[in-house]
Write a structure and sequence with these properties.
The chain is mostly helical. It has 16 helices and no strands. The mean pLDDT is 93. The chain is 67% helix and 0% strand. The protein has one domain. The termini are far apart.
Length: 369
């Protein structure tokens, strides 16, 4: 998908299907990113690997910086190491995807927001610009444009917080408007990022749904307008939710399992180049790594909040909760937890460091006796 669109962009034909029909169904960001590198270096598999290796390296460096900003050097190192050896992210380096560029941009938006080397207004502008770029990879990050400045220091300096929220909204509006207007010209109404929210909502909420990602049946609507199609499925999904509130709650629980009980998507995307006998082993290893780090991070969040309950409003806690809410409320799949992994690595590292400190303090002899 991203590869085909990237080829069209690299050839100068814009964000269109191979037949030339313009689209806004998927966010343009991943295709534009890989398309830019295709235009520079040619359409080759190694170009995708190069882009993803660059993004992965930048992400590891960003997680280390986040660890320094929010915790300490030890936690920063542990988190960076956990992320660098994450099996799913290693598998992702071979395929065009939205998860890796999305995560890289979100990490550095947090770094830009937290750095003390820039004036406050510049941090707001830079972090917002990075979040808008991330939204073009996947629009689920859009609430962070408001949440990051809002949660910065809401109780100590409320007036300043309001000003920075307004500044963030202005920057976001300036950056989002050209694409929304392009979509208005194509589809008759502005589409901020992409025209697939309604379809995703339907996938997780319909009479045949089990909460997981599923194929969408083609319905003859006598139009090729993607916005009309998306609105149609959104209407079906909302009707289903209103008429079946109990079933919707059960589907929400199903989505939790579909989104968090495994992490095999990276291996699945590489199955054509892997020996069949090797795939179950790699999937099991990837899932085991994920479940171990995820479990450590949940305990780490608990310790973090126990030390100070007001940390519930910390962006490091709110952001992964936001990503989890998307999977919980809309549609589930294991790749939907991937944007949470930088924060999961940080909290797992926080708990590992907590355990190491407790052990070292117990091993120090009491010389006061």
């Amino acid at each position: 998908m991203y590869h085909s669109f990237a080829q069209e962009i690299a050839a100068g034909r814009g964000y269109v299907y191979p037949g030339g029909e313009a689209t806004a169904y998927w966010p343009v960001g991943p295709s534009a990113l890989y398309g830019a590198f295709y235009a520079l270096l040619g359409v080759h598999g190694w170009v995708v690997i190069l882009v993803n290796l660059i993004l992965s390296s930048i992400s590891v460096a960003g997680i280390y910086q986040l660890g320094l900003l929010y915790f300490d050097r030890t936690i920063a190192r542990i988190a960076a190491l956990l992320f660098a050896f994450w099996p799913a992210w290693i598998a992702f380096t071979t395929v065009p995807n939205s998860e890796l560029p999305l995560m890289t941009l979100v990490i550095w938006a947090f770094v830009a927001r937290g750095t003390g080397k820039l004036p406050h207004w510049a941090r707001t502008v830079l972090s917002t610009a990075l979040l808008v770029a991330a939204a073009f990879m996947r629009p689920t990050v859009l609430p962070l444009i408001v949440l990051l400045p809002l949660l910065d220091q809401p109780f100590r300096k409320p007036a300043q917080t309001v000003l920075h929220v307004i500044l963030a909204l202005v920057v976001a509006a300036i950056l989002l408007t050209p694409w929304a207007e392009r979509n208005r010209a194509l589809f008759g109404e502005p589409v901020l990022i992409s025209a697939n929210f309604g379809i995703n909502l339907w996938m997780g909420n319909n009479p045949q749904a089990n909460g997981a990602y599923m194929s969408v049946p083609e319905i003859n609507l006598n139009t090729k307008n993607e916005v009309v199609r998306d609105n149609h499925y959104k209407g079906l999904a909302l009707d289903f939710i209103r008429e079946n509130p109990g079933l919707y709650l059960r589907l929400c629980l199903n989505r939790v399992a579909h989104s968090f009980d495994r992490e095999s998507i990276g291996i699945a995307w590489n199955q054509n180049s892997l020996a069949p006998a090797l795939q179950p082993i790699l999937k099991a290893g990837s899932a085991a790594y994920w479940l171990a780090i995820f479990s450590l991070s949940l305990i780490g969040v608990g310790v973090f909040l126990r030390e100070n309950p007001l940390r519930f409003f910390d962006p490091l806690v709110v952001t992964p909760a936001l990503f989890a809410a998307v999977a919980l409320l809309i549609v589930g799949q294991d790749r939907y937890h991937m944007p949470m992994t930088p924060f999961i690595a940080l909290f797992a590292a926080f708990f590992i460091n907590h355990i190491l400190h407790r052990r070292s303090s117990r091993s120090v002899p009491d010389t006061a006796a």
